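pasting for ref
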Amino acid sequence: MKALLLSFSGRKTMGNCLGTLDHISDILDEEGVDSHLIEMNDHNIAPCSECKYQCFDPDKDCPKSDDISDIYGEIVDHDLVFISVPIYSGAPCSKYFAFRERSQSVFHDVRLYNRFERVSKYYIVIGNEESGGKETVDLLSSDLKKHEEIILLQSHNYSQSSISGRIIENDGAKELLDSFVKDALKKHENIARKYKMMDDAQQKI
């Protein structure tokens, strides 16, 4: 089993997004799961703009030249992905929106889309409920399957300011993530068995 860790933080230093993913990496290592971290801050993802909707034509390519295909290629090369998304100005950060909307430019590849659908996705939203947390959770939850999950890490639950970047130093936050990750691994194992049964049945047809 392989897990990808995606950080959408805009910070250039360690903060809540990287801190939580670093802790998740330790948990995965203890569970015998290989993990790989990608900091979206290091990649160029352009938003949808200045085009002629080429993504709606399977015979045409997106005019943007950036890293979006590489990122989605990394995702489908893993079994599950943990995604940390910070809340900026009451909403998910703009880089996440760009990543989400640009999926249209890669999902014309049906095989890639089908592989993406089988990657289990688990979100860690960093922010307080009254500052866009609830709306962000609602937005991201609309993309999740039944076995996938999202948690909201609120700094005020750990007596910290929203920009301190030290949530992971709190034992309560660590316990929440420990439970979240171990539960995610069990859910993924169950869904992976179902996918295998489906594939085996299809081969017999």
